[in-house]
Amino acid sequence: MTAQTGDPHQDDSQLGGVHLKYLHHCPRQLWLYSRGYRPEQGNESVAFGEAVDATTFTRRRDIDLGEARIDWVTTGAIVHETKSSRAPSAAHAAQVRHYCLLLERRGITVRGGIVHYPLIRRTTDVQWDAAARAEAEADEARARAVVEADTVPERLPRSRCRGCSYTDYCWGD
After folding, report:
1. Which of 10, 56, 72, 173 is the most exposed place for a label (fewest CB within 10 A)?
2. Is 1 within a domain?
3. Is residue 67 assigned to a domain?
4. How do beta strands 72-74 and 63-64 pair?
5. Which domain holds residue 95?
């Protein structure tokens, strides 16, 4: 587990996909992450996800936006995200919507997104329209509120923490 020092809010105008994923998974996780607490390096679930990402769709190239890294974008501006999960999650769709919003702010006309689940050979479509844009903007505002809070959010029930790399922080004695 590592903790980085410096401004606890880093550059809070820069929200990446991880921020949105953590917002949906656990606001406490987002708050800790925004302050440089990074136990992910030693987590087996994270390592497994990185291995799945590295070994699937190997012909694609990441798109680095600075604050976010998109797995890839296909012709027609369709955002693609790969997940090692065996079940679709609202956090995954929120992450793709956030990427759509970031691309749109850069003047790119985005058509939507697809979340790929190679372990179960399934995909889910993520719509990009006015409602999705509003949802992405609302998520962004919620994430900023969590990051800017002076106190750590309450922990979730322990049953929701299985596999989380932040478990020791939240539940350790």
Report:
1. 173
2. no
3. yes
4. unpaired
5. 9-171
* CA 20 from centre of chain: 5
Nearest to 26 by CA among 160, 169, 173: 160
pTM value is 0.81
CB 22 within 8 A of CB 56: no
Q: Which residues pair with 127 in a beta bridge?
A: 112
**CATH code of the domain covering residue 68:** 3.90.320.10
Domains of the chain: total? 1
Beta-carbon contacts of 35 under 8 Å, excluding residues fewer than 6 positions away, are: 3, 8, 9
Per the domain annotation, does 58 fall within a domain? Answer: yes
85 in helix, strand or coil? coil
pLDDT tens across 89-146, in order? Answer: 999 999 999 999 999 999 999 999 999 999 899 999 999 999 999 999 999 999 999 9
Six-digit token string for 28: 């406490």
* Strand pairing report for 63-64 and 2-3: unpaired
